[in-house]
Design a protein that fits this description.
Blueprint (H helix, E strand, L loop, with lengths): L1 H24 L19 E4 L2 H12 L4 H15 L9 E7 L5 E6 L36 H12 L4 H14 L1 E2 L2 H17 L17 E2 L2 H13 L2 H4 L1 H13 L6 H6 L3 E3 L2 E5 L2 E5 L6 H12 L4 H4 L4 H21 L10 H5 L1 H8 L26 E7 L5 E7 L9 E2 L4 E2 L40 E5 L2 E6 L6 H14 L5 H6 L3 E2 L7 E4 L5 H9 L4 E4 L6 E5 L5 E5 L6 E4 L1
Parallel strand pairs: 16-17
Antiparallel strand pairs: 1-9, 1-20, 2-3, 2-10, 3-6, 4-5, 7-8, 8-13, 9-10, 11-12, 13-14, 14-18, 15-16, 18-19
Helix pairs in contact: 2-3, 3-4, 3-5, 5-7, 11-13, 11-16
The structure holds 6-diazenyl-5-OXO-L-norleucine.
Amino acid sequence: MTLNCVKINNLKCLLLCLFTTFFVLVGCAPGQLGLNNSGQYRNGMVVCAYPDAAQVGLDILKKGGNAVDAAVAVQFALTVTLPEAGNVGGGGFMVYRAGDGKTSTLDFREKGPAAANVNMYLDSAGNVIPDMSLYTHKASGVPGSVDGMFEAHRKYGKLKWADLVEPAIKLARNGFKITKHLANDLNRTAEQFKKLNPGSNYLVKDGEWKEGDLLVQEDLAKTFEQIRDKGRDGFYDGPVADLIVDEMKQGNGLITKADLKNYHAVWRDALIGNYKDYKVITMPPPSSGGIALLQLLKSVEPYPIKRWGYNQDSTIRLIVEAERRVYADRSKYLGDPDFYKVPVDSLLKPAYITSRMKTFSWDAATPSTSIQPGTFVGHESDQTTHYSIVDRFGNAVSITTTLNDSFGSRIFVSGAGFLLNNEMDDFSSKPGVPNMYGLIGGKANSIQPGKRMLSSMTPTIVEKDGKLFMIVGTPGGSTIITSVFQTILNVIEFNQGMQQAVASKRFHSQWLPDEVTIEKDGVDSVTVNKLQSRGYKVVSRESIGRVDAILKTQWGYYEGGADPRGDDTKLGW
Ligand code: DON
């Protein structure tokens, strides 16, 4: 009797154990099918740089929209809530991977206006005129974001266009409560807004902005109504286009009605490479990001960085030496492929990448002056923003979009309520003269009418075993490439979860200037001393990048990484 009872109790216990183990292993508590107990989601996720915009994206997913629908709604919501970078007056790139594994990319990068020319930022002595490519009406390329969203929706969208624009209209008209970050950014830029937009009080108020203040943008709401009702023509034609051209005329800018009408986003084949067992799907030129990311991954692949560890001396030295060589190549060979033959295959040939790393020595840093862009044997053939979205069908969207600098040129279109980009600074104004990110360039990235300026934006999707693995990207100018690179390594090599991989301290190097920038407290002093003793010049920076990413766990759940450096938010269901 006693024996039998023990047996029955053991059986109960065994069943209970099996039951519990099952739910622990699948990471799911009974009754919570969408969300598991580690904050991971089954049906989809949005990670972006502002809470209200993330909510807009999640609402669209829950209404049955797909990842592209949610992306359109997030892009427009960010224009309202993140005026530093969210935009209709700028451009960007989308990398897309459908649930069935098909990939594509959309290039909605701005273009040089027809009246742009190679010497437009030089004075009569041939010197670059300070700030002309940054804070004047001539700093703006022809915006691409509205056409990009319209085109993405035309090809992949499921819900009605108007329903995706509506949330931005509501946010702009009813206002939203600003965060501390946004209040600080607005206060910091107030004087420049007033100077560049005389007589206007757009984005400025009497006294200082405070966290929790309501920001209402009625002119922007009207612009979005045009976009809602007329699609791309609501921006590139009609009253909004008239306001853009009036703004240009009044400030000696270059963008004309014809420039706007002629703007079209371009579908390009994704750039695809491998790192160990992973397939990396990323952005081709006119972004330099994809090529540089694949070069960096291949440069470090043969080395045991997993054993060396995260942010350890050897890991940092190897990565810095790879970055030095890759950014040197970027300066010479990368530009708009519609205007310049970018030697993509040569730059990505494994033998070429191995040969570049041969000059790296463990004894001392290679001075950047001794590194030049490579030669091939025979030619071939603080603001941007990133959001990562996945839907219940497994469709994944990785979009990085920008006005270039924080609040772009700081010039807004009077009466239309949106800021213009200063993306023209991403062109090389003069060979060898650095742009605002210290990047230099030459012929490949010289200014031409209708040409797209080179970018570092690196929206990326990673696959493992033929399945979605990670969606990742970030703002940060020239540091974008290295932040995406390190985030991928943090997960694959250093076994960090998505949130940790995004939050981990980063470092950056870009050939010129010849230095290693490390986030404050990112590397311990012993390691810094070791780097310095080998000839590395180490500088410190408060923060690098704002990565927003999503990881698909082996149990099929989505785990978000929202960068704690900003107001970045992850929401799922
Ligand atoms: O396209 C580019 O590479 C730059 N315009 C991106 C600017 C940027 O990321 C600024 N963000 N902090």
